[in-house]
Amino acid sequence: MMEEDKAQKQRILTLLKALKEASRDLHSNPFSFIFKNNTHFKDTIEAFLNLQAKSVAIFNTHPNLRHLSDSLSTIKTLIENLQKFKGFGLRSLIHRQITLHKISQLSNSFESEIQHYLDYVTVRDLVKTMEQGFNEEEQVKVLVEFQQRLSQGFDLDFQDLILKARVFSILEGTLIETKISKRVQEEAAMAIAGLVKFNRNVFVGLVLMSPTIKALITMASSVSIRVLCSLVSFVRSPLVDEILCNGEIPRIVRFLCCNDLSLKVAGFDCVLELGYIGRREVIEAMLEEDLIKILVDLQRREGLLNGRMDDDDFDFDSPFASCVSRFAIILLEAGEGLTSEEKREVKLKILKMVMEASQSDVEAATISAEILWGSSH
Q: InterPro entries under this entry (predicted)?
């Protein structure tokens, strides 16, 4: 019985999406009907009428879709009236223009009604699936569908549905619930990032006031740290300051010491983003966690120093190639959070740390040269 319900639901959604596309064509090119040889518009009319015939029985028995049936019937009547006035007399031309305009308006309205219902289904299924603890595959499916809808851009009606259903709280709860699989939590994290991009004016505040950032860092996966990095890039100083105030800098730097390469790379990207945006206090907090020593070690372990690799064998795709200078240059050259004087002071401090962390004069000279050549401060 449940499988039958799922199949019926899928048929309805497929039909609605097809009707939405047909309505968009009618709205976009209504006056194409004037041209006798416009086969595309005639095909659109035919497709719409076929879909209308299939929809009547389904919509009339579905309480939430009954109003769509009325709109469909109205558009069908207008199309039939349009086809009756094929002459080129003044009366026919005027009647066609008026009817085409009505078809365009109604099709646009009908498309919006369908989208609103599809959005309602998306939010309803997300809430139901996450709150009732469905299996992992079902949870991942609704989260991915939700992200896809968010990626289409801002929509006030969709935002209202999200806020009324308290979707952010559900996603936040998913992040901090220890019994939920990491795969589901990662999808929830990406959905939160999608919400922030969807409307930063509404959802940035919710992120800053919630345990979301701590949960992302605690999750400690490459996906969660990439989400954190994207949030830092999008929200900028307010989020960086929040990370600093909550004492999360040490944990982020420690990701560079883990065995998971993908997490290590995500951690380095996050460090670069913090260096680009952060104030002096943020930079100092990272340096106090032996960041320069860690980066020197990473660079050395990959065999990128002391001439141990020939130019022909050099791996230009290495995530940690010249990582010390990349960090230094991004905050000294492009960094937004430091004054010119602070950049000069930090530069000297980094050069000193490089000398202390290097195992030889050659190593120290190599890294220092990369920093000096790339930095004008």
A: ARM-like, ARM-type_fold
